[in-house]
Design a protein that fits this description.
Layout: H1 2-10, H2 15-23, H3 30-45, H4 52-60, H5 65-87
Helix pairs in contact: 3-4, 3-5
Length: 110
């Protein structure tokens, strides 16, 4: 999560947005909240078997169907990368924030 926080901070992510993502809280911007909820539905809540209602809510927030596919692809690529890094005990880049300060709750997907 440290890398994601560093990227978000570079792209003008506010401290409030970063904190909400870190703890799994609802986001103040409805479109970003829809993306957060969809990502959590894919990754945590339904393990890829996202109910039609959740996909419809994502699309109703203004996202296109293609982004749903992009999100699933991104989650898959990130998951494989994470598993490889853990298997190899890859060290955290020292330029990234302390991972102990980046705790993640369920649904905190950055």
């Amino acid at each position: 999560m440290a890398m994601h926080i560093a990227i978000l901070a570079r792209h003008a992510g506010t401290a409030a947005l970063i904190e909400a993502l870190r703890v799994g809280a609802a986001l103040p911007e409805p479109r970003l909240e829809a993306l957060r909820r969809f990502t959590a539905a894919v990754l945590v809540d339904h393990l890829g078997d996202v109910p039609d209602e959740e996909l419809a809510a994502f699309l109703a927030a203004g996202w296109r169907p293609r982004l749903a596919l992009d999100a699933v692809l991104g989650i898959g690529a990130h998951t494989i990368s994470t598993f490889v890094n853990r298997l190899l005990h890859a060290p955290l880049d020292p330029a990234l924030p302390d991972p102990g300060r980046c705790g993640a709750g369920v649904g905190s997907v950055v």
